[in-house]
């Protein structure tokens, strides 16, 4: 028996409703913030990720799926979404568009060769957003508000937004110097990777999963304390806008995030829910003012975030999120070989009219057919046999009310639609079908 690759998973038909509901919420909130969907390829040339994500990051140094294609070029399955979106932004000259600020979002699979565990996979889904064209702190605040609104729409409450600023070039350079001076005497006490990072990219040391509690890191200088006045003002403005929007956050001076391209604001959203286990960071993001330029585009600033959708679904488990309900409007029971052609025609008419409808394809007996009705959660069951054919009638039962009626077979579709249009709840106070007074 073939097995799925390690670190991957199947979304079975019974589970896809949850994914649809999640994606629907994402798309709805994206509309509110005026972000439009962008779809870029899952594979890109390897250089793109080396250049954007950064050579010394865990993602590029240890986690990418790379392969040489038949044309002898090195390709990589995208480990994250920003690089491809920026590549597309430049290649399609979106910076020259009539709209000075381009706001896009994406939903799709990402690939990282990681040690699989709950909330950590080798193929996983991300929903991310990117806004290009403005360095205004309003946009940093908007992107955080957008991420928080997605969680609100999904009714995920117990979350913390952690926020920090790395500043721009000058702040980052001053901080890097201070950090190197601080680490130098104790560098040999840190892990092997950190010793390499000291040479290649010392900021990455703060993001080390092994040494993060080592006293030399706990006591290390913080980027926030090395911000130029201008960069500090940018950060203060982001905080002011968040305060104005009543968005809660905490400032986490240790937050640096795992990608090289960030400048100014970086943030993460952590959910405090048992169903998440150790992987409780559901969203990460920040500003990247020089990424477009470093990938060959003009000097255009950007800011974005990415959510891990599996982790969002784990968070949703704790609030008994059911997803889109799965049901049929009609299950048509066709009895007898001679009724099949007619039955198929009726079924197809109902479907074309917009009803979710199905039949039994296995010629099961009545018991087997009723089992399928239950399984499919069908609202109406219509029985079409030799008698019905002879009399042009059809028997139809409403599984919700238990009512059964016999109608002209040509009325099947109209009857169901009319019944579906009726208010679904009778008023429990006065027992009328619908009741404005009791508001039920
Ligand atoms: P982590 O610290 O958990 O490895 P990260 O910093 O590598 O996360 P990002 O690159 O910022 O993650 O990706 C954004 C979000 O994507 C994460 O917050 C997380 O929710 C999700 N994510 C990242 N890697 C994985 C993975 N291997 N499996 C599932 N979700 C993931
Ligand atoms: Mg990671």
From TrEMBL:
The enzyme's E.C. designation: 6.1.1.21
EC primary class: ligase
UniProt-listed GO biological process terms: histidyl-tRNA aminoacylation
Pfam families in UniProt: HGTP_anticodon, tRNA-synt_His
Principal cellular location given in the protein's record: cytoplasm
Origin: domain of life: Bacteria
Keywords tagged on the record: Aminoacyl-tRNA synthetase, ATP-binding, Cytoplasm, Ligase, Nucleotide-binding, Protein biosynthesis
Subcellular location as annotated: Cytoplasm
Reactions accelerated catalytically: tRNA(His) + L-histidine + ATP = L-histidyl-tRNA(His) + AMP + diphosphate + H(+)
Subunit and partners: Homodimer.
Family classification: Belongs to the class-II aminoacyl-tRNA synthetase family.
Name of the protein in question: Histidine--tRNA ligase
Source organism of this protein record: Candidatus Xianfuyuplasma coldseepsis
Gene expressing this chain: hisS
């Amino acid at each position: 028996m073939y097995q799925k690759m390690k670190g991957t998973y199947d979304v079975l038909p019974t589970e896809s409703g949850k994914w649809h509901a999640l994606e629907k919420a994402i798309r709805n909130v994206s509309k509110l913030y005026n972000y439009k969907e962008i779809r870029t390829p899952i594979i890109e040339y390897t250089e793109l990720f080396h250049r954007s994500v950064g050579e010394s990051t865990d993602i590029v140094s240890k986690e990418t799926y790379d392969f040489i294609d038949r044309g002898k070029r090195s390709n990589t399955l995208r480990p994250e979404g920003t690089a491809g979106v920026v590549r597309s932004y430049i290649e399609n000259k979106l910076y020259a568009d009539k709209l000075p600020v381009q706001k896009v979002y994406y939903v799709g699979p990402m690939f990282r060769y990681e040690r699989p565990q709950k909330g950590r996979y080798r193929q996983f889904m991300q929903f991310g957003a990117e806004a290009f064209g403005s360095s205004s702190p309003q946009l940093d605040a908007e992107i955080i508000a957008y991420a928080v609104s997605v969680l609100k729409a999904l009714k995920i409450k117990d979350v913390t937004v952690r926020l920090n600023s790395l500043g721009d070039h000058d702040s980052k350079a001053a901080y890097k110097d201070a950090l190197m001076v601080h680490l130098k005497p104790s560098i040999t006490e840190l892990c092997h990777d950190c010793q390499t990072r000291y040479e290649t990219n010392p900021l990455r040391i703060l993001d080390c999963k092994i040494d993060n509690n080592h006293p030399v890191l706990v006591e290390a200088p913080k980027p926030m304390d090395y911000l130029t006045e201008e960069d500090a003002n940018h950060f203060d403005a982001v905080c002011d806008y968040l305060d104005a929007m009543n968005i809660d956050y905490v400032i986490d001076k240790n937050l640096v995030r795992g990608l090289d391209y960030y400048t100014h604001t970086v943030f993460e959203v952590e959910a405090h829910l048992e169903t998440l286990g150790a992987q409780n960071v559901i969203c990460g993001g920040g500003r990247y003012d020089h990424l477009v330029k470093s990938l060959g585009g003009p000097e255009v600033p950007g800011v974005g975030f990415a959510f891990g959708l599996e982790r969002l679904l784990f968070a949703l488990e704790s609030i008994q999120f059911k997803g889109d309900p799965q049901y049929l409007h009609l299950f048509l029971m066709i009895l007898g070989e001679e009724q099949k052609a007619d039955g198929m025609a009726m079924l197809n008419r109902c479907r074309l009219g917009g009803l979710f409808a199905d039949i039994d394809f296995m010629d099961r007996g009545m018991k087997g057919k009723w089992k399928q009705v239950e399984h499919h959660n069908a609202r109406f069951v219509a029985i079409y046999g030799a008698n019905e054919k002879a009399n042009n009638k059809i028997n139809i039962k409403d599984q919700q009310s238990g009512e059964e009626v016999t109608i002209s077979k040509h009325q099947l579709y109209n009857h169901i639609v009319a019944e579906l249009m009726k208010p679904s709840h009778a008023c429990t106070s006065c027992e009328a079908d619908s009741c404005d007074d009791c508001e039920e």
